[in-house]
Structure formats: structure tokens, C-alpha cells
Specification:
The chain contains 10 helices and 18 strands. By secondary structure, it is of the alpha+beta class. Among the domains are: 32 residues, no CATH class; 125 residues, no CATH class; 41 residues, no CATH class. Strands 1, 3, 5, 8, 10 and 11 form a 6-stranded mixed beta sheet that branches. Strands 16-15-14-17-18 form a 5-stranded mixed beta sheet. It has a 3-stranded antiparallel beta sheet with strand order 2-4-9, with no helix packed on it.
Length: 465
Amino acid sequence: MLSKIQLAISKLDRAAWLRFFGALFGLAFAFLAAIYSTVFRESGNLIGTAVAASVALLLAALVGFTTVPYLAKRVAFRRVREAFDYEATREGAAYIVLIIILGIAALNTNNNLLFIIVSAMLGAIGISGVSSWLMMRGVGLEVSLPQHVFARRSVIGRVTLRNQRRWTPSFSLQVVPPKKVKHEGSLRWEKSVFGFPSKRPPHLQWVRLPDRSLRRVPPEPQPPGIFTGSIYFPFIAAHSSSSADLEIKFSTRGRHVQEGLGLSTRFPFSFLAKTRRVPLKRELLVYPSVDPTEDFFEVLPLIAGEFEAFVRGRGYDLYRIREYLPEDSARNVDWKATAKTGALKVREFTREDERKLRIVFDNPAPGTVSDKAYESGVQMAASLAWHFSQEDAELNFVAAGMEARDDVYDFLAYLALVGPEPSTNNFLQQLPPSDAYNIILTSQPRGSLPTELWAKSYFLFIAES
């Protein structure tokens, strides 16, 4: 293992040395082209002078853009060299083109004033880089996110920048999402069979031997991020902080992960957009949407009526006025209704101490329903759980792969990550007994449902419509 590592390091060193000597040859040819441009200028050949000077500048720029960053990656200060990303701007590109034009003119005319101007312009680029670095030095980034987030509902996230420097303020800072890294997958050796002739079917091939082939494995899907926009901070005073709120809205449920953020600035001349990568990892669990839908408004009165009929008794919420029975107490007689009808009437109340409700989510197996119907069933379960959690009832939640819970947020967290699972057809048959009224969401046909649940359950079928 050690020999393999040493071999890999030697290969990297060999590549670095090749780049280094290639850069030396490139600079040597650039110097030679610069000398030829001087010779052509003294001989009066303007075209040769322009061509030679342009070649010298292009070779020098090519070495600077290809070799210098590569060698800089081999610096021991990994933390420093991996801290920043650079992105060219239109203003910076126009500025570089102007420097090249003035540089060619200075070489052709040998005018000292043009050389001074080019030097000043190059110095401005260096000043811009140092200034932008100073603006981001000592600036910390903090992110505050809400604890409970629902899909399709806007929430507010707060981003805070803290300037830890005592004397110098920061100008024109922007918090941006990190650059997306393209994952190309990995190479993996897999078992295969070598067959000859290769174009024939397997049963007609003359030779079939065990073999191994190198194949590219696609990368695993990455969870979506949290922040998609940017926040601009024009000024942060020394040794102080500045906060800004950002509206966030998620269209789907599930886990969202933020792998770092970027602190960017173009200060002071906007030649380059310099971005410092801030290592920051945040995870956010987005619950399913609980906003009422048309289906929800259709089934809610039916469920509420069935539930009230199941829990009618003695309590504080009036259920109905009915005829007097011998076992009824005289204190429940409604004398106004009795006087109007001429017969004894009593009030019947709901049993407040027994308003127990259990929501059951029978997770469909893969391929049972479409993705749209599945998401509608998950949203219906979340909406019912959220609605009855605001009511005066004792709630309990049961689902396939989840222990019985009485906290609505635990049930919503389960629904946020749930997906179709196989072998759940006997879930309702194994449902533990309870004296609560059941709201059961299932995709099983009516004939396979346990008959003992019909008397105290309301079934919602997860189907295509």
C-alpha cells in the first residue's frame, strides 16, 4: 500500500516538473518573441512588430493561466489556496484587453509614458485583489433557519455577517450559494463474461470465460440545497454584525442539505468576482404541505361527522337533542325544546374525556399507485394530522415502519421522508387494538380490509382519483 502511495506521489511530482519546464520553455519563447519585436520595430516592419509582440504577450498569459494555478495547488498551505474562487467579469475582461493594447503600443513606440500607464493599470489589479481579500478577512457567517418548515409555505431564514476586525469596516459583501460541483461518478470493476464471437448470442458463442470489466458507476443523487438566492451587504462596521432575512420556499417535501456558502465581493474595481468558500453544513427537514385542498374539504365534514357520532355521550359539546329515555338524567332535559314539542327532550353531548383519534398511514407498495397519487395521499395524511392537532382530541399516529407516536411533528417528520415500501399488505391486520376512532389511509382494496375495523374507522383510499 505504501509503495502505491509513493508511486502516485512520484507521478504527481513528475507532472509538476513537466509543467514547470514547459512554463520555462514558454517564457523563453515569449522572451525571444519580444526580442524579435524590437528588431522588427528598429527595421521599420510594423506588421512583424505587432505579430511578435502579440505572440510574446499571449505566451506569457498562457503560462500565467495554465501553469501558475497548477503549481499553486501544490503549495503546502492548503487552507489558503482552497479558500477563494475567482470569476472574471465583463469589466475586468475589457480592462485586460485595454492593458494588452497599451502594452503592444508601448513596445512598438518605446514610449515611457505608456509603460508607466500599463504599470499603473497592472498595479490597480494587484490593489484590487488585496483590497477584496481585506474586505473578507475576519468576517464570519452565521445562518439561522426555522425549526418547522412545510412545503409550499414561505419561511424566513436569517443570514448574519460578523466583522471581527476592530478597526476596518467591510464594504460590498454578498452571500451566494456555492458553485455546483459536477459529479461524474466513479470507475468500478464488475464481473462479466468474455464471449467469442462477440456478436453472436450467448448460447451460440464458441468461448465463454469469466471476465472483469471497468464500468463507470453513476453518482448518487444529491439532496437539494436550501439557499438559491443571494443577499447583499453594502456595509458592515468594524467589530459589529449585520443581518438580513431571506424568504425561502420549498416545493417538495424531504431532506434539504446546504453544503457551504460563498462570501463574494467585487470591491473595489469589479475586475474579478472573488468568492471565499465558507464551510457550513445545514440540514433542513421539509414537512409535506398541510394546505387544504379540494379533496380535503370534501372528506373533512364526513370524517368530523363520523367521529362525533362515535364519541357522542356526556360532555360539554352539544351533539344533538333527542327523545327522553328512562336511563337519562333529569339534569340533561332541555326544557325549551320540551315546551315547544310537548314531549320530554334531552341534550346529548360528546364525550370530551374519550375524544381519541388515531391516524393510520398504510404505506403503499412500489408500483401500487402512481407518484402523483402517492404524494396526494401523503399530503392528505399530513393535512388531517395538522388539522386535528389543533382540535381538542387525543391524537395517536401509526404508520408502516414507524412506532406509534402522539406528537404530530414526529408523524410529519416520518411523512417528510417516507417512500413506497414492499411487504406492507398485512400492516392493517397487525394493527394493535385501540378504543380510538381510526382514520386509515390505504391503497388496499376494500375486500382485503379487516372487518373489525369498519365499525370504528373511516377509510381513505389512495388511488388515481
